[in-house]
Amino acid sequence: MRALTAVRTTDHQLALGFAIGAFISVLPTPGFNILLGFVVLAAYPRLNKLSLFGAMAILNPVVMVPFHWVSYKIGDALYGVAPAVEFDVVIVDQVYNFTRRYLVGNVVVALAVSMLSYPIVRGLAHYSRERLGTRRQA
Fold it and tell me: In which element (H, E) is residue 33 found?
């Protein structure tokens, strides 16, 4: 945390970079998430690069296994028990039902992780900078 708070960014930029990195990491885009991170940084160059990619390093695919399980469970709870029949092929219906439940649940989990990580990281950055005496105004 000391290395992150020593850079010349505000607590908001540091926390926002981490929150966006956490959101991207939770999405089911392994490998492609790094490209998404660079696209976000190109669009918003004032974000803290270390915190954005730090979130991606912390929330790596191995750590994300329980999040993927929870994503499906949330999507399953949102859609209920009635299966949707869209196609005449049973396997296609099953893949469709699983995919939509998982993706909807995954977006909910990604938003929750992102929204929870922002105040936590901002508070930690504020505390660390106050303690070190390197507070920057937002």
Answer: helix 32-43
Cβ neighbours, 10 Å, residue 124: 17
For 111, residues 6+ apart whose C-beta sits below 8 A from its C-beta are 23
Q: Which of helix, strand or coil describes residue 44?
A: coil
At residue 83's C-alpha, the angle toward residues 78 and 87, to 5°, is: 125
Q: Express each pLDDT in 57-92 by its tens digit.
A: 998 888 888 998 999 999 989 888 766 666 677 788
Phi-psi region at 9: left, alpha or beta (left = phi > 0; alpha = psi -120 to 50): beta
Q: Is the whole-model pTM more than 0.70?
A: yes
| Secondary structure (DSSP) of 76-103 | HHHH-S-----SSSHHHHHHHHHHHHHH
Helix, strand, coil percent content, the chain, rounded in steps of 5: 75, 0, 25
